[in-house]
Specification:
homodimer; 86 residues; alpha+beta; Mth169, Chain: A; three-stranded antiparallel beta sheet; elongated; ATP binding (chains A, B); purine biosynthesis (chains A, B); PurS (chains A, B); phosphoribosylformylglycinamidine synthase activity (chains A, B)
Chain lengths: 86, 86
């Protein structure tokens, strides 16, 4: 069945404590090539049937109302992915 | 500065209670086009300098050791993204 991916990231101006914690841990395990980390969420919605424009609109609606908090997060992607694609 | 995206998703055989909760909530707000939802994580690592093969290898190492739990999660993507790309 086709899937729609929704990516949600903290807004750039919002502090991201999880990302900060990871950025602080990287050098402790010897990984020094990075200047910062942000942690967001990734959702895969499995579509029941074909991906119609209506279903895509439903996914966009879900992204902004249920899957993200628009005060602190941005929806950065709502996209159909192929079966073998990530 | 260039960024590397790491996507981490729960393994298919692992129960995903957050995804299940979202899948249950969708029809309650009138969104009936979906058969299931899985929730994972998305990380953006900002690279300090250029993306060398060494830095990419560091990102892969971080993905499997720090950013995911290999018992219950799969790293589904480690990829450089362009400045305007998500």
């Amino acid at each position: 069945m086709p899937r729609i991916v929704v990516d949600v990231m903290p807004k750039p101006e919002i502090l991201d404590p999880q990302g900060k914690a990871i950025a602080g841990a990287l050098p402790r395990i010897g990984l020094t090539g990075f200047a910062g980390v942000r942690q967001g969420k990734r959702f895969e919605l499995t579509v029941d049937g074909d991906v119609t424009p209506e279903v895509l609109e439903q996914a966009r609606h879900a992204a902004t109302t249920l899957l993200s908090n628009p005060v602190i997060e941005d929806v950065t992607r709502v996209e159909v992915i192929e079966e073998d694609e990530q």
